[in-house]
Automatic annotation (TrEMBL):
Organism this protein belongs to: Culicoidibacter larvae
Residue span(s) of domain CarD-like/TRCF RNAP-interacting: 1-113
Protein name: CarD family transcriptional regulator
InterPro entries: CarD-like/TRCF_RID, CarD-like/TRCF_RID_sf, CarD-like_C, CarD-like_regulator, CarD_C
Domain of life the protein comes from: Bacteria
GO biological process, one term: rRNA transcription
Length: 168
């Protein structure tokens, strides 16, 4: 059970603050809701029914600083997950974004980053859908990392590179 003032991640919406837990009446039936306010965007407030397990599962607490550092150290060992068929790739990448599993997000970013590098070497660009998947995965992961580590998002990539290079 989450509490008011908890900072959480809500799937693709990213970092949110639970501003209240309220009851709303609809057709004589009262339902309790978590009220989530996205912290880093002007997106609208999100109402998640407390008794809807499927939607509540999409809310999770932010990682600890130790967990973030462990994930950063694990980045070089993450496998890439390129899928040749574009329809299958879109379906799988949407699932990864929806699930917000950290290791899968790292794999997704790594895969698309390396593929983008290959394409650039031959004078081509990443397909728009793949670029959007990469940007969304980076947003989800990097917002949380920057918040947890109490740094500016612009400082995150140099920090990740420094941690990875120190481990080599």
């Amino acid at each position: 059970m989450f509490k008011v003032k908890d900072i959480v991640i809500y799937t693709t919406e990213g970092l949110c603050k639970i501003t209240e837990i309220c009851s709303q009446d609809f057709n004589g039936h009262s339902t309790d809701y978590y009220v989530l306010k996205p912290m880093l965007s002007n997106r609208p407030t999100i109402f998640v029914p407390v008794d809807n397990e499927q939607l509540v599962e999409r809310i999770r607490p932010v990682l600890s600083a130790d967990e973030v550092h462990k994930l950063i150290k694990a980045m070089p060992d993450q496998e890439t997950i390129w899928i040749e068929n574009s329809n299958d790739r879109k379906k799988r990448y949407k699932e990864i974004l929806s699930d917000s599993d950290h290791l899968e997000l790292v794999s997704l970013i790594k895969t698309l980053y390396f593929y983008q590098e290959e394409l650039q070497d031959s004078g081509k660009k990443l397909h728009l859908a793949d670029k959007m998947f990469m940007e969304e995965a980076e947003k989800i992961l990097y917002e949380e990392f920057a918040y947890v580590l109490d740094i500016e998002p612009s400082q995150l990539i140099p920090l990740i590179v420094g941690v990875i290079e120190a481990d080599e």
